[in-house]
TrEMBL record, chain A:
It comes from the Eukaryota. Residues 183-393 form the DNA polymerase alpha/delta/epsilon subunit B domain. One of its GO terms (biological process) is mitotic DNA replication. One of its GO terms (molecular function) is DNA binding. GO terms for cellular component: delta DNA polymerase complex. InterPro entries: DNA_pol_a/d/e_bsu, DNA_pol_D_N, DNA_pol_delta/II_ssu, PolD2_C. Residues 31-157 form the DNA polymerase delta subunit OB-fold domain. This is DNA polymerase delta regulatory subunit 55.
Automatic annotation (TrEMBL), chain B:
The keyword Nuclease applies. CDD domains: DNA_polB_delta_exo (cd05777), POLBc_delta (cd05533). NCBIfam families: pol2. This is DNA polymerase. Residues 537-974 form the DNA-directed DNA polymerase family B multifunctional domain. GO terms for cellular component: delta DNA polymerase complex. It comes from Klebsormidium nitens.
């Protein structure tokens, strides 16, 4: 099998833009209000501008200046009051048996309602123009409507910040000019997780490294210029890490998955550049932005300069194509707190909200930033992905200002055996499936 | 305003809690223990109200407050539409408050009355359109009875009248000129309520007087020996200790809060100068008004749309001091006006000192001076004209504070808040003392015509809680935490800008809103109104007075229908030294953990039904010395000898009034419950539920009333006979059950009574499954009931399975009422809420019981307890679980013995007087490791200080003094050697103690890096040479630690944001009652430390 001709691996220019997600001095004396404050401060001019253009005759007011019966627009941060939202207080105050052992996947309830808050105050929103199920806490919007006698605000229309500008336009598709080149996106290797087939993972690594398949397959692999592991590569056994003294055997068990992953990464890094993003199950910090995995975890792979540990979220450009993605936590959180079930729709929403993770910090853990909100989307990426989703899905989103964004729901590899190849020229995304069903077996 | 329990009124939190919930019902709980709720001897003091013409209030208020007319106009009540025509229109209204004043006799209605001064009854209420009504009732005169003096005859009447009149004229400070004091003397045939009387209708002398206070005066004279017509009068008096307003209500069949009808033509609309601020003001003769009983449904059982004002004030204390009304200004007052029955407030506003940014949904009134602020509020009260004023701790803080401030500022017009023109509000100190509710010092404030309902007082009466702060009460009943702003921060907010004052105003509004929410949620209005209706006392009595007046009101009403008179018994002792008599029986508890179902048989309304069954009453009791005589007279078959040897007449001969009252109460309760089932409308349901509850409580309190030795009408023969019957019945039940349900009689097992308490018996019938036990329970209940006199009935209610019986009055079990699924876990006497326990105890006990009873996992429970103890000893327990809280009732010098919390308060004052707890605050503390031999009170420390300085906790103290007793109680019946297993096992070997950062030797200590793996000292980096291989593993551990802390940090701080209701502003709350307060502080520190440790890997 295979030809003897050696395929030359293609390369591409790579620039990491993770600096915005990197934390230097970490302090925890501050609270979260500053984060919301800067978020609103940054998005307000955008929305006020949109209000002026959309509703030229309407005045945009602060909540405090509202008068009952007067039609006007208000810009503010949404807060969704939710019945089912779990509260840490329940752990103290509720009877034990009343707390369900497993939190439901969806926390949406018919009685949820939205509150709009600006620097001056808050007001409850009513009306069918905005369904609470479509929004989440932390989203900044402009609403048009009238304050009622009872102090509620009846909303007639809503304006979102909408897609941010895209100064770095992805190249226009020019098929056939040059051989296509790909960036491979993989998430959820789940090394060390119970039930994960190590052979399947090894197959993927071998394939990406060009050690497998016929010439066609090898060609495909040679054209892959970079692999990005979008989180949850590792499944660390949490019960071994509670701080109890470990026996020698337990010590070994605790590090075995990391060593296994290091081996895989070493093989990959030897073949092509690899970005490793941390995810919710990786040995990195918990709250967003997650900081790069520490090199001491990967004594083998970190010897290669092709290996780079990235932040989550991770932003980078490959040959001028602007990539942005997360290991999936923002989307997972929105799935729980919004009525929508489609990860792509939620990805689109976050772009239109110009915010990568609006539910941070409310229900999504996040660092208490004081003078910036790194999750604001000032510019529109060309490829926007969320890792660790249940299934692969993709679409091309076109903005009114000519923005073009490839949205990708990246499936968990451990469950699906699927990686995704993104064509740098056309922005097409195609699944790459590895399966062990035809291999091995008795 | 309610800030970290800082009010002086919060002292009462430390007073003994009510022994039982009001609506729990004494019979159901522990009726035999003590009838003490009735020992409130001072409740019958008659107080004179004088109608004094005062100068009209200055009109300056109106002028100074101009400019906001538009928003203030909506404060007024709807106009009376259409205007009333006194010749053709009936006036129908719900009365809420009844009192009386002494004024000038109304010569239009009473042209021939002999005295110029008269007691005028005033009724305040609301009609169904929401108009306020004030009725002046004339012509009702005070009176009382004495037995007919020997030698009295119709011809000597005038001499008696003259002699009594003269005696009064000499004695009574109000006594007018001779001839106008005693209005009438007449002979009526009555009999005493006390003892069975063979001879009916003895003659009594009814003495009618001009003014209510004369009753007490003349009674005193007579008791001390008064001569009339040359002979000494009998010294016993009857019906001489009834408050005048209540006397009027009893005689006119008016009960608290019922509907009154004034028929057209019978009343006179006020046309001259108004005497009140009410919209409808009328004069009427006392016999012309119609009282409608509140029963069934329809208008007369509803509630009028009366106006409830809920308010809260904020004041600006100086640093380090509790606000003092003599010095510190009121800076904000938030108000919420709600119509009874409406879910949304009618008016919502906040009045501030200095400018304040607008608030959505609330009117903001800003003022340049405190005087204007206070006058604005006075205007609000006059304009809104609330029928009920509520708030949290208003009786002892907000109202006295406002009144004192107005006095300091010299604001005369502020004092006119009542409904009666030209009458100032009054304030005086009172002490309310009863064994049930403890001694409370409080202010009594009279705002005429308006009821005050302090939600704090109602909570303290009706619920047994570990903390009564508004925050903690809201958390329990409304499921939400309240933001708590420390008073040192209040000053900063006030001194800031309009936005910070707005912040404070929002907070103040919430504090005005929460009492209203509690009122709604706990149905206080419905329950109290129905209690007033059932017992017949005015609404205002329910919070201000004790239990016995409610029972006495019913006895007097019933006695009146039978021409019986209630004697005025002299008080026989001091509260507390009541004569002891044997209480209820408790069958010995057979301690153990029962895995087979235990059926419980309960006596329904045990004490009431005993009293009914055996006709136990004042009127049926035969005095000891007359027993033989009476028995031979009416036949021995017609008397009952009780187990205590007292003798009562049977019902066929003479039905007692107590059994009759009880029968009516229980029948009415049955009706109310039936109506409740049919009711659809939630408001109607609330009324009916309140009614059936009030009826139940009332029925149960009759027994206690008879046993209150310093009460108004004690009769120990009744109460001790009742409990004796109760004891006998429990034994009787045990005997019958065990002799019938056994193998010899064909049953599968021998039944065994394992425990019996007052009104219930617990039986192990033997079968394994719950439904079998239920069937046997039902059979036994029917079988045993048949052996009792009606209406005594044994009911089968529930099965416990499994059942952990610890000792008498202490047990826990899963409660089943249907065989399919258990209802809940039921515990009794296992302290999970005691205030001097830390949260860890409660959690441990609850969780252990859960594991034992629900999961049926005893080894799991043991393991759990061991783990927790191990965590405690290795310093892994969340500090907030270890906090103990005590109320600081006086300063440390005044405590006779040094106590942990007062000493700590003193130490904290030395550190920072601004944030140290003041008298009235609750002091939270933890027990820390002290120097060797340190005394207990020296080992208390502020939890925050402990957190910040890594001070080690005295885990051993917690283990021995807090955990061991409650845990052993649970585990001893279950396992052998519980103490050794749980408290001294292997899991207690590992101990770790924090290194403090302050004090002692630490001043000389130097910090050095140590290896994360083996703690060996190192120069730099993370691990020593030997642990180098373990770096990955150690990194994983460190990062895992950071992860957990980050997760907590996020969840805790966002929770506080949600609670304060703002995303864009920092959380200010410092509520130490909040379970996450310390945790939130600790996680900041822990997370910073964890990240620092993690950053050691970056090199």
């Amino acid at each position: 099998m295979g030809s003897d001709a050696v395929q030359q691996r293609q390369t591409a220019d790579y620039v990491s833009q993770d600096a915005q997600f990197q934390l230097r001095e970490r302090q925890y004396r501050q609270q979260y209000s500053a984060l919301y404050f800067t978020r609103l401060l940054q998005l307000r001019p955008v929305l006020e501008d949109r209000v002026r253009r959309q509703w030229p005759h309407v005045q945009a007011l602060e909540i405090l200046k509202l008068a009952a019966g007067v039609r006007c627009a208000v810009v503010g941060t949404l807060y969704k009051q939710m019945q089912l939202k779990p509260s840490i207080l329940d752990e103290y105050t509720k009877e034990r048996s009343a707390v369900p052992l497993v939190a439901p996947a969806k926390l949406v309830h018919d009685d949820d309602f939205l509150i709009l808050e600006d620097m001056s105050g808050r007001i409850r929103l009513t009306g069918d123009a905005l369904r609470p199920a479509d929004y989440a806490t932390g989203v900044v919007v402009a609403v048009l409507g009238v304050e009622q006698a009872d102090g509620e605000f009846a909303v007639e229309a809503v304006l979102l910040p909408d897609l941010p500008p895209q100064p770095l336009r992805p190249p226009a598709p020019a098929a056939g000019v040059a051989p296509p080149r790909y960036v491979a996106l993989v998430s959820g290797l789940g090394v060390g997780a119970p039930g994960v087939d190590p052979l399947q993972t090894q197959l993927l690594v071998d394939h990406l490294g060009g050690h497998l398949g016929g010439s066609q397959a090898q060609q495909l692999s040679a054209r892959t210029v970079r692999v990005v592991l979008a989180g949850d590569s590792l499944h660390a056994p949490p019960d071994l890490l509670t701080g109890q003294a470990l026996s020698a055997r337990e010590q070994a068990a605790a590090v075995a998955p990391i060593q296994e992953l290091d081996l895989l990464l070493t093989q990959l890094a030897a073949a092509l550049p690899v970005d490793v993003m941390p995810g919710s199950t990786d040995p990195a910090n918990y709250s967003l932005p997650q900081q790069p995995l520490h090199p001491c975890l990967f004594p083998g792979a970190s010897q290669y300069d092709t290996f780079s540990a990235a932040t989550n979220p991770h932003r980078f450009s490959v040959d001028g194509v602007d990539f942005l993605g997360t290991a999936g936590q923002p989307v997972a959180d929105l799935l729980r707190y919004c009525g929508r079930d489609d990860p792509l729709a939620l990805l689109e929403s976050t772009l239109r909200w110009r915010h990568l993770a609006p539910t941070a910090p409310d229900t999504l853990a996040c660092y208490p930033f004081t003078d910036s909100d790194p999750f604001l989307l000032a510019t529109c990426p060309a490829v926007y992905f969320a890792g660790n989703q249940a299934a692969f899905a993709t679409t091309l989103l076109q903005g009114t200002d000519g923005q073009r964004v490839r949205l990708i729901a990246l499936p968990r590899f451990a469950d699906t055996g699927m990686a995704v190849l993104v064509d740098l020229a056309t922005l097409e995304a195609q699944p790459l499936t590895v399966t062990t069903t035809n291999l091995g077996g008795p | 305003m309610q800030t970290s329990g800082k009010r002086p009124g919060m002292q009462s939190v430390g007073a003994p809690p009510p022994s039982k919930r009001l609506n729990g019902g004494p019979t159901h709980d522990t009726p035999g223990d003590s009838p003490d709720p009735f020992e409130d001897p001072d409740f019958m003091e008659e107080e004179e109200e004088f109608y004094v013409e005062e100068e009209a209030p200055p009109a300056a208020a109106e002028i100074r407050l101009g400019g906001d007319d538009e928003r203030m106009r909506q404060w007024k009540r709807p106009p009376v539409e259409p205007p009333i025509n006194q010749a053709t229109d009936d006036i129908v209204f719900q009365q809420l408050d009844i009192d009386y004043v002494v004024g000038t006799t109304n010569r239009d209605l009473l042209p021939y009355r002999r005295s110029d001064k008269a007691a005028i009854i005033r009724m305040f209420g609301v009609n169904s359109q929401g108009n306020s009504v004030c009725v002046f009732v004339h012509g009702f005169e005070p009176y009382f009875y004495i037995p007919l003096p020997p030698g009295y005859n119709p011809d000597s009447r005038d001499i008696y009248l003259r002699d009594l009149d003269t005696a009064l004229a000499n004695a009574d400070r109000q006594g007018g000129r001779p001839g106008s004091n005693v209005l009438d003397i007449e002979v009526e045939r009555k009999q005493s309520v006390l003892y069975y009387q063979r001879k009916r209708n003895r003659p009594f002398l009814k003495i009618t007087l001009a003014l209510p206070t004369m009753v007490a005066t003349l009674r005193g004279l007579i008791e001390r020996g008064l001569m009339a017509n040359g002979v000494y009068l009998p010294t016993d008096t009857y019906e001489s200790n009834v408050l005048f307003a209540l006397r009027f209500m009893i005689d006119r069949s008016i009960v608290g809060c019922n509907w009154i009808e004034l028929p057209a033509g019978a009343y006179r609309l006020n046309r001259g100068r108004a005497r009140s601020f009410c919209q409808i003001e009328v004069d009427v003769m006392f016999d012309k008004l119609i009282s409608h009983p509140a029963s069934g449904s329809g208008l007369y059982s509803t509630l009028a749309p009366f106006r409830i004002l809920s308010f809260d004030i904020e004041c600006q204390g100086r640093k380090g001091h509790f606000p003092d009304a003599k010095e510190d200004p009121v800076i904000q007052i938030a108000n919420l006006v709600t119509l009874q029955g409406s879910s949304k407030p009618l008016i919502r506003n906040v009045m501030t000192l200095n400018s304040c940014s607008p608030i959505v949904g609330a009117d903001v009134f800003s003022h340049d001076t405190e005087a204007e602020l206070l006058l604005r509020w006075a205007k609000l009260v006059r304009d809104v004209d609330p029928d009920v004023i509520i708030g949290y701790n208003i009786a002892n803080f907000d109202l006295p504070y406002l009144i004192e401030r107005a006095r300091v500022k010299g604001l005369q017009e502020f004092q006119f808040l009542g409904r009666v023109q030209n009458t100032r509000i009054k304030m005086r100190d009172t002490t309310f003392s009863s064994k049930a509710y403890g001694t409370r010092e409080s202010k009594e404030i009279t705002i005429e015509g308006r009821l005050q309902f302090d939600v704090l007082q109602a909570m303290q009466r009706d619920y047994k809680l570990s903390s009564y702060s508004l925050n903690s009460v809201s958390a329990i009943f409304l499921g939400e935490q309240k933001e708590d702003v420390h008073h040192s921060i209040i000053s900063d907010l006030q001194n800031g800008n309009p936005d910070t004052r707005r912040r404070l105003a929002v907070y103040c509004l919430k504090d005005a809103y929460l009492p209203q929410r509690l009122l709604d949620k706990l149905m206080f209005v419905y329950n109290y109104v129905e209690m007033a209706r059932v017992t017949g006392v005015p609404f205002g009595f329910l919070l201000a007075r004790g239990q016995s007046i409610k029972v006495l009101s019913q006895i007097m009403r019933k006695a009146r229908t039978r021409d019986l008179l209630v004697p005025n018994l002299k008080v026989q002792g001091q509260p507390g030294d009541g004569i002891a008599y044997e209480g209820a029986t408790v069958l010995e508890a057979k301690q153990g953990f029962y895995e087979k179902p235990i059926a419980t048989l309960d006596f329904a309304s045990l004490y009431p039904s005993i009293m009914m069954a055996h006709n136990l009453c004042y009127t049926t009791l035969i005095p000891k010395n007359q027993v033989a005589e009476v028995a031979s007279d009416i036949g021995p078959e017609n008397v009952t000898k009780t187990p205590t040897g007292d003798t009562f007449v049977k019902a066929d001969m003479e039905k007692g009034i107590l059994p009759e009252i009880l029968e009516e109460l229980l029948a009415a309760r049955k009706r109310a419950k039936a109506d409740l089932k049919l009711a659809k409308d939630p408001l109607e349901k609330a009324v009916l539920d309140g009614r059936q509850l009030a009826l139940k409580v009332s029925a149960n309190s009759v027994y206690g009333f008879t046993g209150a030795t310093v009460g108004k009408l004690p009769c120990l023969e009744i109460s001790s006979s009742t409990t004796a019957y109760g004891r006998q019945m429990i034994e009787h039940t045990k005997m019958h059950v065990q002799s019938k349900f056994n193998i010899a009689n064909g049953y599968k097992f021998d039944a065994e009574v394992i425990y019996g308490d007052t009104d219930s018996v617990m039986i192990r019938f033997g079968p394994d499954d719950v439904s079998m036990a239920m069937e046997l329970g039902r059979e036994a209940a029917g079988y045993v009931s048949a052996t009792f006199i009606k209406p005594i009935k044994l009911e089968f209610e529930k099965v416990y399975c499994p059942y952990l019986l610890i000792s008498k009055k202490r047990y826990a079990g899963l409660l089943w009422t249907t065989p399919d699924k258990y209802d809940k876990m039921d515990t009794k006497g296992i302290e999970t809420v005691r205030r001097d326990n830390c949260l860890l105890v409660k959690n441990l006990v609850t969780e252990s019981l859960h594991k034992i009873l629900i999961d049926r996992d005893v080894p799991g429970a043991v393991q759990y307890v061991k783990n927790q103890i191990s965590n405690l000893l290795t310093n892994k327990v969340d500090l907030s679980l270890l906090v103990i809280t005590k109320g600081l009732t006086k300063t440390a010098e005044k405590y006779e013995n040094k106590s942990a919390h007062s000493e700590l308060a003193e130490r904290m004052r030395k550190r920072d007087p601004a944030t140290a707890p003041n008298v009235g605050d609750r002091v939270p503390y933890v027990i820390i490791k002290g120097a060797k031999g340190a005394r207990g009170f020296e080992k208390s420390e502020d939890p925050i200080y402990v957190l910040e300085n890594n001070i080690p906790i005295d885990a051993q103290h917690y283990l021995e003094n807090q955990l061991s007793k409650p845990l052993l109680r649970i585990f001893e019946p279950i396992m052998k050697n519980a103490a050794r297993e749980l408290l001294h096992g292997d899991h207690t070997r590992a101990v770790s103690i924090l290194t403090p950062t302050v004090g002692g030797i630490m001043k000389f200590a130097k910090k050095r890096l140590s290896c994360l793996g083996c703690k060996a000292p190192i120069e730099k980096g993370t691990v020593c040479e030997h642990c180098g291989k373990r770096e990955t593993e150690l990194y994983q551990k460190s990062v895992h630690n950071v992860r957990e802390m980050e997760d907590l940090f996020g969840r805790l701080w966002t929770q506080c944001q949600r609670c304060q209701g703002s995303l864009h502003q920092d959380v200010l709350c410092t509520s130490r009652d909040c379970p996450i307060f310390y945790r939130r502080k600790k996680v900041q520190k822990d997370l910073a430390e964890a990240t620092t440790q993690l950053s050691r890997f970056e090199f």
